[in-house]
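Quick start: read one record
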Amino acid sequence: MRILDRAVYVGPSLYAHFPVIRLELDLGELEQWPTVRLGDAFIDGLVAALPNLAEHGCSYREPGGLIRRMRENEGTWLGHVLEHVAIELQNVAGEDVSFGKTRSTDKPGVYSVVYEYVQKEEGVEAGDLALRLLTSLLPEALRSSSAVPEGWSWIAARDEFIRFAQRRALGPSTAALVKAAEARGIPWFRLNEQSLVQLGQGKYQQRIQATVTGRTSHIAVELASDKEETNKILGALGLPVPIQQLVQNESQAVRAARRIGFPVVTKPYNGNHGRGISIRLTSDEEVIAGFKKAQEISRSVIVETFLEGDDHRLLVVNGELVAATRRTPGHVIGDGVHTIAQLVEIVNQDPRRGVGHEKVLTRLQLDEQAQTMMARAGYSADSVPPVDSVVYLRSTANLSTGGTATDVTDIIHPDNREMAVTAIRAIGLDVGGVDFLSTNIADSYRKIGGGICEVNAAPGFRMHVAPSEGTPRDAAGPVIDMLFPAGSPSRVPIAAITGTNGKTTTARMLAHITKMAGFTPGLTTTDGVYIDGQRTVEGDMTGPVATRTVLSDPSIDVAVLEIARGGLLRADVHVARAHAGAVLNIR
C-alpha cells in the first residue's frame, strides 16, 4: 500500500468548496484484503489506537457506522479506512474536520482518497501517519517494512503528531478570532506560519497577530510590558496596585523586601506566562532564590507586596469588560488513599486535558517547580495527602502549566469592572487583560482590598472561550465587531474569468473599465499582476498565488482574476466566492 500522488487544494476545487487533500492510493495486493478478511484483530487494534473512530457514522450516518461497515458483509477497503483515520488524527490534534470521500479509479487497486484539512502540513502528515498506522496493524505477511520504521511506536508517533500540529496551528486566541470572523462572513488568510492573519480583502483588510490588532498602539504594548511604569501610571490614578521596587542584584532584592515588608513576590521585569515568578516569600533566603529564578528570564527583577486572594483575569475590549475568569494554579486534591503522583495521573485522565494547547486544559507535570511546591507543603510525590487537602503544583495560575479557569463574569462587582476598564484605558490598549488579585471578585476592591498585579497586551482568550467551569464567553466577537463595525464591508468585488481563449483580453478590458469608473483594480493575467494599471509582478500569474497577491494589496477595491483552466482543475481558485464569473470560448 503506497501513496502514488498527492494534491493539496486551498480553495474551491472539483472535490469541495473548502480545503481538501487528495491522495492517489495504490493498495497493491491489499485490494484482495477488505476489512472483513483482515479480521477482528485488525479492526480492534485500529479502534484501540483511535477510540473515537467508533463515533464515525460513515454511510450509516450514525455513531458506530464506520465500525459496522468494516465488520459487515464484505467489509470495506483500506483506502476508505485511511480516509477516516486521516480525519480522526486531525480531530485528535484539535482540528474540527469531518469531510472525506474515497472512490476507485480506472486503475485496478488504485483509489482517490479525499479528506478535509485545516493546516496544510498537518493534513499531509495525517495522511502519511494514517498509512503507517494501518500498515503496522496488518498481518506480518502483508506488512511493508519500508512503511513502518524499525522500533516505531504508535503512542510516540501520535504524541509527536499532536506536537507537530500544534507548532503549526493557529493559537487558541487567533483561532477564536478567525472563527468569529467566519461567522460574520469575513474572509481571511494566514500571512505567516505563526499567528499573523489578514481579515478582509484589499482596502477593507484588517490584520491581527494573536490578540494584537492593527489598531493596537505600540506605545501601549511597550507600557504594558514595562511592569514598573504600568504600576506608577495606575497608582497615580488611584487604582489598587502593590508597592513594588525594581532591583538589579540580590542585596537590593533583600533590602527591597525588608522595606516593603514580608511576604513579597519576585518576578521578571519583562516576563510573561507566569515564568520566573515566586510568591509568598517570607525570608531573605527565599527572596534571593526568587531573585535568581526571575533573573533567568530578565536582567532586572521586581520585588513587590504579596497580595492575598485568588488570581483573576479581566478582559477588556474596546472600552468594555467582556469576560472575567478566576484562575487556579495546577493542583491535586487528596483522597487519603492515593499518592500525589497517582493523583496527578488520575487528573491527567480527564479527557479535557491534553498536550500544550491541544485541549481546554493542559496535563499536570511533576517537574522541578512541582517538586519545590510539594516540598514547601511538606510533601513528596510519594506522599498521601489527607482527604480534601489541596496540594498546589504551581505557584502561578496559567492554563499553559495545568491551571484551571472558572468564569465569574456574571458576579464581578461593578467597581471591579470599572477598575479594569480604567486600567486598560490608562495604558491605551484596544484589547487588554488585567490580572487582579481579590479574595472575592463579587465584592468591591474599595471594601475588601485587592490589587492589580499586571496589565497584559495580547491577552489569551482560551480561559474565556473554554473555561474549566462556568459559562463560555465570546471573547473574540467584540474584537471582530470593533475591527468591522456592523454594516462595514470586508470583501472587494471579484470577477473570475476562465475558458479556452480570450481570457486575458477580457480581463484587461474589465480592469480598464473599472479604473475608468474611478476604482483601483487588481488584475491577474498570463503576463503578470497589475495594480491600478501598473504591472507589479511579471510572469504567468493565473494561479492561487496571484489571487492572494491581489487580495492582500491594501490599495485595491476591485479584483479581476484571469484563471487558467488547467490550473483550475489541477489546483483551485484560492478564493471562496466571486461576484461575477465568465467561462469563455469553450472548446
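The chain has 20 helices and 27 strands.
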